[in-house]
């Protein structure tokens, strides 16, 4: 983890009270922190200038000027947003900013981690499948349903399964050519791992959207590794769900491009079928 902003965020809980004040000022306004003098930062954090210098040395930099350079490099690399826990006394402005920033940070982290070669292999599996079962539990069940809405448009037998018993029965009846897409943030849900193993035993392929080296990843044919950075704070929403939805958009785009222009009339036909259900833009409801 070379990014200074991510290092500061990761070590936030281990800092003493004074150093944490410095960290919170930097994380809240990283762009502004690159322009502040050491005196201004100390005042904003309500600490002394020596405390700021100790904070800098804790991260292996010689002083505040070098810290500002590394902050600027972090921002230039696309890490303008970092994950921050929502606190009980946060204002509407504070928790709105934190939630949006945490979600953007999660998306950017996933973008950097996911390998294009694995995306290509995942698109291969989806394009060649006879039928696809998107499986998820809890919050991931809604993601599985979104996947069904996307992929049935490709003349593909696509289903969303959020019931463990149905997942097991489908896995038991699976054949070569079937694809199970297992959606799990942690990859440690026993039921999903069992379904993945059962599906593979019966000849199906299994594509996981989960954490690298998790039990689900190891039980799958291919895993699209997602970064494990979810904040378990009581008030923090599940930004991982947004990452999963974005990854499904990537896969859908890949399948669309793989199908080529000959498939576009089919997609247009589906889209045009919805026109009678909507008011024209210039017609009042």
UniProtKB/TrEMBL annotation:
Domain HTH rpiR-type intervals: 2-78
Gene Ontology molecular functions: carbohydrate derivative binding; DNA binding; DNA-binding transcription factor activity
UniProt keyword list: DNA-binding, Transcription, Transcription regulation
CDD domains: SIS_RpiR
Ranges of residues in domain SIS: 122-261
Keyword hit for Nuclease: no
GO BP annotations listed: carbohydrate derivative metabolic process
Gene3D superfamilies: Glucose-6-phosphate isomerase like protein, domain 1, Winged helix-like DNA-binding domain superfamily/Winged helix DNA-binding domain
Pfam name, any one: SIS
Keyword Cytoplasm carried by entry: no
Protein name according to UniProt: Transcriptional regulator HexR
Source species taxonomy: Bacteria, Pseudomonadati, Pseudomonadota, Gammaproteobacteria, Pseudomonadales
Gene: hexR
